[in-house]
Specification:
Layout (H helix, E strand, L loop, with lengths): L12 E5 L12 E5 L8 E8 L3 H6 L4 E2 L1 H4 L11 E11 L8 E2 L4 H12 L16 E5 L1 H7 L3 E4 L3 H4 L4 E9 L19 E2 L17 E4 L4 E4 L16 E8 L2 H14 L4
Antiparallel strand pairs: 1-2, 1-6, 2-3, 3-5, 4-5, 7-8, 7-13, 8-9, 9-11, 9-12, 10-11
Length: about 270
């Protein structure tokens, strides 16, 4: 199905994205499942699709099998058709021009497993926990150059976060980075899905000179930690999260992040 710029993109459509529309070193075209309806002027949040549930079997990642899709697979080695919401990305919806399939009947189940992957309502990890849900992270220079943000909040469910592989992250920016140059920051008007937190101790781990953090939930995305335990070096993950900082967002801010994600992705 081809979309015009004026068309909304409905949840459940599958878009095969080339490497230039994704971040990282994977050279292949990969199918992604659109989680929510969006207009061409918005970001769409999409979940990675795979023919093997390796991340679920080995590391407990939440996945959903689309049985209708699995029945159409014809190649050896393809176990099924799985949506993996621990690996999300955002894209300009205007660039989602051609849908290769639509599985609207799977949308409620995919949204349920997405809420599970995000650990909605489970709070931040304790300071000594292996999970880093709720923690502030500093991202690599490569990420900063690609996306123009350097910090984020981890929102992965605790069990999978503790595997320290892929982490779901919402970006944190300074208010001056989301306004025109020399604009009066007192006149800042947040976008619908922005969270503007109240002053809290965790602000102290952010760069000096920041005036007001803004958490951009519309750009929810997955980044990797360095993971090198597999015998096959080709399966090692390259670090996109540079450091886990010694602070977590406060419970009120985390609840507001979850509320924004839930409303935008229609998880509730």
């Amino acid at each position: 199905m081809l979309f015009r710029d004026s068309d909304d993109r409905a949840a459940g459509h599958v878009f095969t994205l080339p490497p230039e529309q994704r971040f990282g070193d994977d050279p292949k075209r990969r199918p992604h499942f659109l989680l929510h309806r969006c207009s061409a002027s918005e970001f769409g949040t999409l979940a990675h699709m795979t023919t093997k549930s390796s991340e679920e079997r080995a590391f407990g990642a939440p996945v959903h099998e689309i049985v209708e899709c699995s029945r159409t697979l014809k190649y050896l080695g393809q176990a099924g058709c799985f949506v993996s919401p621990v690996r999300l990305l955002f894209a300009d919806a205007s660039e989602l021009a051609r849908s290769d399939a639509s599985y609207t009947s799977a949308v409620p189940a995919v949204r349920a497993v997405t809420a599970e992957a995000l650990g909605m309502g489970t709070g931040a990890a304790a300071a000594n926990a292996v999970s880093i849900r709720g923690r502030i992270v500093a991202l690599t220079r490569e990420v900063a150059d690609a996306f123009e943000f350097e910090h984020g909040v981890v929102v992965t469910q605790h069990r999978y976060s503790a595997q320290r592989r892929w982490q779901l992250v919402v970006p944190i920016l300074d208010v001056r980075d989301v306004m025109p140059e020399n604009a009066d920051t007192l006149q800042f008007l947040p976008e619908t899905w922005d969270v503007v937190p109240e002053r809290a101790d965790w602000w102290d781990v952010l760069p000096g000179g920041w005036q007001q953090p803004v958490i951009d939930t519309a750009r929810l995305i997955t980044f990797s930690e360095r993971w090198a335990s597999a015998r096959d070096r080709s399966r090692w993950l390259k670090a996109q999260i540079a450091r886990v900082l010694p602070a977590s967002v406060d419970s009120g801010t985390l609840s507001r992040i979850e509320a924004a994600l839930g409303a935008r992705l229609m998880l509730e």
